[in-house]
Write a structure and sequence with these properties.
Four Helix Bundle (Hemerythrin (Met), subunit A), DinB family protein, mainly alpha
């Protein structure tokens, strides 16, 4: 059983992503900097989609994000070239924090205990929801680092 520390860290990571959504224009969010194959917007939505798939789908729970977002931003997808609309930015800002908070609630309520083992392309096998939560921190931090680098170029 995890303590609250991973969830505190997850909240901080998500708040950093919210900050980018609040301080960058839709054009900046959608710009694909030279040397990259995606953009800030894709990275931010992708971390929510991945967290939902790993935490909820693999534990046979209903995901907290519309399936259209997940289909368009899961692993193996790429930006579609559109600028995010203001209402989409608002929705993703809300989902960044609401999915983080609900994950913590659902974890401590034991709703995520039925779990299917999953091996990531990162080379890590997750055998429990605890493994997923810890791996997800690594995944989101990797994408946060990518966003930080991209911000300097947009």
């Amino acid at each position: 059983m995890l303590n609250e520390e991973p969830f505190k860290l997850h909240s901080i990571i998500r708040q950093k992503f919210v900050g980018y959504l609040e301080h960058l224009t839709p054009e900046q969010l959608a710009d694909i900097p030279y040397g990259f194959n995606n953009n800030i917007w894709w990275n931010i939505v992708h971390v929510i989609a991945t967290q939902q798939l790993l935490s909820y789908y693999l534990s046979d729970n209903e995901m907290l994000m519309d399936m259209a977002w997940i289909e368009n931003y899961k692993k193996g997808t790429a930006p579609n070239g559109d600028f995010p609309l203001p209402e989409e930015i608002a929705e993703i800002k809300n989902l960044l924090m609401s999915t983080q908070q609900q994950l913590q609630i659902d974890y401590f309520d034991g709703k995520l205990n039925s779990f299917k083992t999953y091996s990531s392309s990162f080379g890590y096998t997750m055998n429990s929801i605890e493994d997923v939560i810890l791996f997800n921190l690594t995944h989101e931090n990797m994408h946060l680092g990518t966003v930080m680098a991209m911000k300097k170029l947009v």
